[in-house]
Amino acid sequence: MSLIRPNVDSLEPYVPGEQPQEPGWIKLNTNENPFMAPQIAVAVAEAATDLLRLYPDPLCVALREKLAARYGLPAAQIICGNGSDELLTLAVRATAGEGDRIAFPTPSYSLYDTLARIQNAFPVPVELGPRWELPVDELGAVGAALTLVANPNAPTGTPYSLDALDALARAVEGLLLVDEAYVDFGGETALPLVNRHENVLVLRTMSKAFGLAGVRLGYAFGSPRVIEALNKIKDSYNVDRLTQVAGIAALDAYDAAMAHNRETAARRDRLAEILHTRFGFRVWPSATNFLLVDTGRYPVKALYEALKRHRILVRYFDRPLIGNCLRITIGSEPEVSALLRALESLLL
Ligand SMILES: Cc1ncc(COP(=O)(O)O)c(C=O)c1O
User: Fold this and answer.
1) How confident is the model at residue 195 (pLDDT cuts 50, 70, 90)?
2) pLDDT tier for residue 2 given thresholds of 50, 70 and 90
């Protein structure tokens, strides 16, 4: 009986990072932010009234107006989603049919490949350069219905220039989605490209820079035509009432969040230096809130497991090019100190 579409039947699902539900873990594995503005929790608590009986605003009007004022694009060019992952799904569904190509650099966010397979589209991974440079010409040559680029990239941490993305927007045939999940930790935004090219969609999330992974809020900026298409296919009530309130409160606390992000970036660079000088690791330059660390002669899986015994979670990847690397989130100062103490006890 053909109960399930064959491509779904044979799908290897995306595996999210471990999310232990009991307290006591130092979580440096899913790039969450140690800082969340306290006003957000207050606003959400105040909004938790019997109004929850009623459906939320399907178009997130108040939130989109706030985003429009913050980022300088009209609300008609903004869509909100249940995390940026939902907006990635919508972009795939809107642009790529069965057998169409979906291009993305590799290594990058592995969900891109999974989403292409769910759609029964044809994933085309294109290797980054030796220093993780963006392969603009090769990506442009794919002829993809959709090209997905994380900038800065995950898990390498690499920032790409606006010029490179501008060139890519001209080189691709279909939609270019620039996933800026980590841009507030040091990347250069592609927002200026949105009104330059009808085919550019810039994706953001509140999960990282605003410390709101738990409420699931993403947003995207694009041409009116692309935003209209995404609106047609989204679930009617894709962003719940409490999330809309949290998003508005997060934007009200924008300056505090960005100040913390600058501090995180400074601590990231200090940690990179220490990991290199003290343990001999090769640390890739990062414009994000994590580091990609080649652990050299120390096998990553054993190191990951040893850290786990210290109740510290990091991430490793059983994938080409980064098979000897750990990805370490820049946690709070005490969390980073605990990581360093654990590494010292294990390696020195
Ligand atoms: C590059 C990239 N894009 C998107 C996401 C998803 O973010 P969200 O929590 O908004 O779904 C992540 C999460 O890790 C990510 O690393």
Assistant:
1) very high
2) confident
CA angle 85, 232, 252 (to 5 degrees): 55
Q: Is the pLDDT of residue 340 over 80?
A: yes
- Give distance in angstroms: CA of 328 to centre of ligand 1: 15
Ligand 1: list residues with CB < 6 Å: 31, 83-85, 109, 150, 154, 179, 181, 205, 207, 213, 218
Query: Do 231 and 294 have their domain in common?
Result: no
**Runs of H (alpha helix) within the chain:** 6-9, 38-47, 61-71, 83-95, 111-118, 136-141, 162-171, 224-233, 241-252, 254-279, 300-309, 333-347
- Mean pLDDT, range 57-71, rounded to an integer: 98
Q: For 225-248, what is each residue's pLDDT tens digit?
A: 999 999 999 999 999 999 999 999
**Are 107 and 160 members of one domain?**
yes
- Residues 191 and 202 reside in one and the same domain: yes
256 band by pLDDT with thresholds 50, 70 and 90: very high
Both tokens of 128, joined, read 């980054």
Last residue of a domain, one of 232, 253, 274: 253
DSSP state of 251: H
Has residue 14 been placed in a domain? yes
**Ligand 1: which of 14, 19, 31, 85 to mutate, judged by most atoms within 8 Å of the beta carbon?**
85
Residues 88 and 136 in one domain: yes
Domain residue limits at 26: 6-35+255-347
Q: Which residues contact 281 (CB under 8 A, 6 or more apart)?
A: 275, 293, 294, 295, 296
Determine the distance separating the centroid of ligand 1 and the alpha carbon of 90, expressed in angstroms.
14
Q: How far apart are CA 219 and CA 276, in angstroms?
A: 36
The owner of tokens 């850290």 is: 307
- Which residue type does 247 have? G
From ligand 1's centre to the CA of 216, what distance in Å?
A: 10
Domain count, the chain: 2
Query: Is the domain of 121 the same as that of 207?
Result: yes
